[in-house]
Amino acid sequence: MCGIVGAVAQRDVAEILIEGLRRLEYRGYDSAGIAIVDTDNVLQRVRRLGKVQELANAVDSTPLSGGTGIAHTRWATHGEPSEANAHPHISGQHIALVHNGIIENHQALRELLLERGYVFSSQTDTEVIAHLVDWELRSAETLLEAVQKTVLQLRGAYGTVVMDSRDPERIVVARSGSPLVIGLGVGENFIASDQLALLNVTRRFMFLEEGDVAEVTRRTISVFDGNGQAVERVVNESTVEHDAADKGQYRHYMQKEIFEQPSALINTMEGRISNDHVIVESIGSDATAILDKVEHIQIIACGTSYNAGMVARYWFESLAGVSCDVEIASEFRYRKFVTRPNSLLITLSQSGETADTLAALRLAKQKGYMAAMTICNVAGSSLVRESDLAFMTRAGAEIGVASTKAFTTQLVALLMLVTALGKQQGSIDHVKEQQIVTALQQLPTQIEKALAFDKPIEALAEDFADKQHALFLGRGEFYPIAVEASLKLKEISYIHAEAYAAGELKHGPLALVDAEMPVIVVAPTNDLLEKLKSNIEEVRARGGLLYVFADSEAGFDDCEGMKIITMPKVDEIIAPIFYTIPMQLLAYHVALIKGTDVDQPRNLAKAVTVE
């Protein structure tokens, strides 16, 4: 959510900053801005409501020159989307600042600053920080000292970058709860909220830790921890693909990422499964010792990751024989809970920076969990750094706001973890392990077969052109798949969609069913199929319009009021992952028909780094 890019260089940096913002457009935003100190030490600022291209056009018409600058894409929290509320914010004629996060005590600080004579030009919490830095500079000897004094007064989450036009050789950055990374160049250095923004200028990165404040010049980087002590942070070489932000042959990032899933799943499994078994040590050097002791699993996640956890609960209990609870992170962190003996906490997050999930992890570490593990897609992220075990999904950069390949790679990682746990504890024997591994090895090919249904599903999507509501049904582990399918449809097409365990129909949702309500059913052959068929008949009897996704052995035939989409038969173990694909394709094609912004749906952001 929001994006930051900064630079200290000898060359003009406007184009670098704007290109960095383009690479962060996937996060979701409503306005963009840039500030640069020119060769006369004059602060120049341009802000625009709308897309980065609007900002780029404005900069083209009024060129900005200078080697020190900051830029930002804003997703509105405090104050409406407007040019006045867009970043960077300025105090006086010298201090410019960008900020990700939320300052919880901004109102009290605003009142204090008003008493000191400051005038506010925006409704944002961010402007408070700019004025505080300006105030502290009246007594501080350096910008670094002023920022260190300022952050001590802030309560909340922030990743902030500050510059002073009177001292253009340096930028100061501070991180608390909102990620920042420093990119190292040759005779120049950069700052961003995501390394993806800087891959066109460097591949060497330093990740700031919680509470860090850093001073960045062209040739030096000085980092100080929350106690003001100088510290060293490791420099990492990025292996992220440089062209990960390009759509290539695809119309949208979401479409590209749906079709990348076979290769993404191969990457997730690479080096972690052999011909007939899961390699437990590949999960982490301490995995064997930890898994031996696990008596309970607690999964914490948000959104799509929460739905992945809900599928995994069925696997942990039915395959590994270990009890499992799944909870939304924003609920878990604000209730009193009982920690089970020898409980392993598992956090799920694409970005590794989801604020509620990160806060839940930190809380759980105080509450006596045996160990904490994260399943994540971003190396170096906060969840990865703060967990005992990190199981990387290796999905590659996911740009579209609506998660696709992150979801399926999380499911594959979870299934491998379930297998490793059951293997360690003796609940999964060699025959069962071999069956699971074989199914996993076949999965990329099976996903290719599911993707081959793109054209039929595109045609099917025409039926949804005038629909405003939809109902998804599933049973067992396919209930959370139905929940994920409804989330995808509502996220990108803005159709109101709900999902229910099919057995719950008669307990209320059946009242919604009529001839205008499409009902989408995930119905592969399994032990619950006959029960599900009874639920389907309940819908048919009320005149509902049914779309049933089933395999060739399920025994469905097209008839009035019911369309059957016959899918290939796949192993029951991997079927939840397989049936995710047609649900993603359906949501994508309905959104195209509805004419919505597929990659950046309204009101949403990719990485939710605030509560």
UniProtKB/TrEMBL annotation:
<dbReference type="GO" id="GO:0006487">
    <property type="term" value="P:protein N-linked glycosylation"/>
</dbReference>
<dbReference type="GO" id="GO:0006002">
    <property type="term" value="P:fructose 6-phosphate metabolic process"/>
</dbReference>
<dbReference type="InterPro" id="IPR029055">
    <property type="entry name" value="Ntn_hydrolases_N"/>
</dbReference>
<dbReference type="GO" id="GO:0006047">
    <property type="term" value="P:UDP-N-acetylglucosamine metabolic process"/>
</dbReference>
<feature type="active site" description="Nucleophile; for GATase activity">
    <location>
        <position position="2"/>
    </location>
</feature>
<comment type="subunit">
    <text>Homodimer.</text>
</comment>
<dbReference type="GO" id="GO:0005829">
    <property type="term" value="C:cytosol"/>
</dbReference>
<dbReference type="GO" id="GO:0004360">
    <property type="term" value="F:glutamine-fructose-6-phosphate transaminase (isomerizing) activity"/>
</dbReference>
<dbReference type="InterPro" id="IPR046348">
    <property type="entry name" value="SIS_dom_sf"/>
</dbReference>
<dbReference type="InterPro" id="IPR005855">
    <property type="entry name" value="GFAT"/>
</dbReference>
<dbReference type="Pfam" id="PF01380">
    <property type="entry name" value="SIS"/>
</dbReference>
<dbReference type="GO" id="GO:0097367">
    <property type="term" value="F:carbohydrate derivative binding"/>
</dbReference>
<keyword id="KW-0808">Transferase</keyword>
<keyword id="KW-0315">Glutamine amidotransferase</keyword>
<dbReference type="InterPro" id="IPR017932">
    <property type="entry name" value="GATase_2_dom"/>
</dbReference>
<dbReference type="GO" id="GO:0005975">
    <property type="term" value="P:carbohydrate metabolic process"/>
</dbReference>
<feature type="active site" description="For Fru-6P isomerization activity">
    <location>
        <position position="606"/>
    </location>
</feature>
<comment type="function">
    <text>Catalyzes the first step in hexosamine metabolism, converting fructose-6P into glucosamine-6P using glutamine as a nitrogen source.</text>
</comment>
<dbReference type="InterPro" id="IPR035490">
    <property type="entry name" value="GlmS/FrlB_SIS"/>
</dbReference>
<dbReference type="InterPro" id="IPR035466">
    <property type="entry name" value="GlmS/AgaS_SIS"/>
</dbReference>
<keyword id="KW-0963">Cytoplasm</keyword>
<dbReference type="Pfam" id="PF13522">
    <property type="entry name" value="GATase_6"/>
</dbReference>
<dbReference type="InterPro" id="IPR047084">
    <property type="entry name" value="GFAT_N"/>
</dbReference>
<keyword id="KW-0677">Repeat</keyword>
<protein>
    <recommendedName>
        <fullName>Glutamine--fructose-6-phosphate aminotransferase [isomerizing]</fullName>
        <ecNumber>2.6.1.16</ecNumber>
    </recommendedName>
</protein>
<feature type="domain" description="Glutamine amidotransferase type-2">
    <location>
        <begin position="2"/>
        <end position="219"/>
    </location>
</feature>
<feature type="domain" description="SIS">
    <location>
        <begin position="287"/>
        <end position="427"/>
    </location>
</feature>
<feature type="domain" description="SIS">
    <location>
        <begin position="460"/>
        <end position="601"/>
    </location>
</feature>
<dbReference type="InterPro" id="IPR001347">
    <property type="entry name" value="SIS_dom"/>
</dbReference>
<keyword id="KW-0032">Aminotransferase</keyword>
